[in-house]
From TrEMBL:
Gene3D superfamilies: Crotonobetainyl-coa:carnitine coa-transferase, domain 1, formyl-coa transferase, domain 3
Pfam families referenced in this protein's UniProt entry, alphabetically: CoA_transf_3 (PF02515)
Source organism per UniProt: Phytopseudomonas punonensis
Matching InterPro entries: CoA-transferase_III_domain, CoA-Trfase_fam_III, CoA-Trfase_III_dom3_sf, CoA-Trfase_III_dom_1_sf
Protein known as: Crotonobetainyl-CoA:carnitine CoA-transferase CaiB
SUPFAM superfamilies in the cross-refs: CoA-transferase family III (CaiB/BaiF) (SSF89796)
Keywords: Transferase
Amino acid sequence: MSADSTAAPMALAGLKVIEMGQLIAGPFASKLLGEFGAEVIKIEPPGVGDPLRKWRKIKDGTSLWWHVQSRNKRSLTLDLKQAEAQDIVRKLVAEADVLVENFRPGTLEGWGLGYDALKAINPRLIMLRISGYGQTGPYRDLPGFGVIGEAMGGLRHLSGYPGQAPVRVGISIGDSLSSLYGVIGVLLALQERARSGEGQEIDVALYESVFAMMESLVPEYDAFGYIREPAGSALPGITPSNSYPCNDGSYVLIAGNGDSIYKRLMSLIGRDDLGNDPRLAQNDGRSQHAELIDSAIAEWTAQRGRDEVIEALKAARVPAGYPYTAADIVQDPHYLARQMIETVQTPVGPLKVPGVLPKLSRTPGRIGAGGPQLGEHNDDILAGLGLSDEQVAGLRERGII
């Protein structure tokens, strides 16, 4: 962010968040809160830390993903199975606004750290709980990762091509969607707390967060008995919107499904016969003839290189693009102009990372640092709770921190 972007207090300045989660869903939610000024204390198991520290590409012993997922956070190590560690959590909660957790339902209750117990300490506490199936219902005790939520939520059935095995989106979309719903819940609860003075519990299930994205899936089934099936790169019922081959082996994505856009597209590719066909004037008619329209577009793109196709479509004001790789992203002038690629200093050196969303005009978010080293802030956090150096040393000797 520019130097003057930090002049106003950040949107969540003064908010204290305790993160008791690992891997993706819970930590992604607290990352978003931290980017807008919340103080985030991340609790990790002593000695090993969050497993995400060892996921995907590793440099100097630490995952590069770590410096995205855990930026702006402070690391406190606690063995939550130990009574002394649980007492420290209670002290932290007494001063906190939000607690984020993504353990299996019942885990915190088993440690005496369930919502009812913590609310007795701090009635203003807002507790975000993200789990595979939610805190209630017949599946609540089953283990659930993002991939299972994507399957049960309906996404995996729609991904891929007809007659082939379902494919994953390529990122942990089920976890991330749950994080976004979780943050929305936190912000709603904070707004309500400003009126009532009371906190509340937010119950987010991975499968429900995916299911909420499923558009008209259920009413189409209810009204017509229609089960939507995978359609590859096409967008069923919305025509034309697909990927099309070019003569250099690449693909372009064209969204010509607006009525006036469709006519411009057909004119561009020399198919005014299709552009002026009254049957195809609106989307419902075009969708009945999607194969005809897609074939005409593909015939035109297949005779040209990707760049030529993109430039022609831009000139005709037809939405178009191509699948970006990481190399495309970090070099793209629009990404750079909107500060969506930033560089942070980390123990492994300067590192390019994604920028902050959403963009607030007066109190924008920021990236202060990459992910913390394991237990980096133990002494400072515990001293802030009133523990002496001798007490902290004793906790360390007993493996509590």
